[in-house]
Amino acid sequence: MNNILIGKRIVLIMKIRNIKRRELANKLGVSYNTLTKKIKGRRQFNLDEICKLKDILNIDNELMVQILFSGKFYVEFDNKESYEC
Q1: 3-state SS class at 5
Q2: pLDDT digits over 3-44, tens only?
Q3: What gap in Å lies between CA 77 and CA 23, rounded to an integer?
Q4: pTM to 2 decimals?
Q5: How many Å separate Cα 60 from the centre of its chain?
Q6: Which of 34, 39, 62, 63 has the smallest C-beta neighbourhood within 10 Å, fewest atoms?
């Protein structure tokens, strides 16, 4: 899967969950700059970080599989708004 697309999907979930990049970086145990590189696709998330992301962003297994492997990504938020990327 395209690292840039994974990063866009993670940013989308961050917005939905109202989690700022600095907060996520701290919880992942990486610097803000490192997280930014990972979100922009210049570096990959490792398995440990993916597991932490799942917990921090409150992502179930099905959604995590969509984020990482699905060609099309669609998520609904509070039954009001929907997002696709």
Answers
A1: helix
A2: 888 898 899 899 989 999 999 999 999 999 999 999 999 999
A3: 21
A4: 0.81
A5: 12
A6: 62
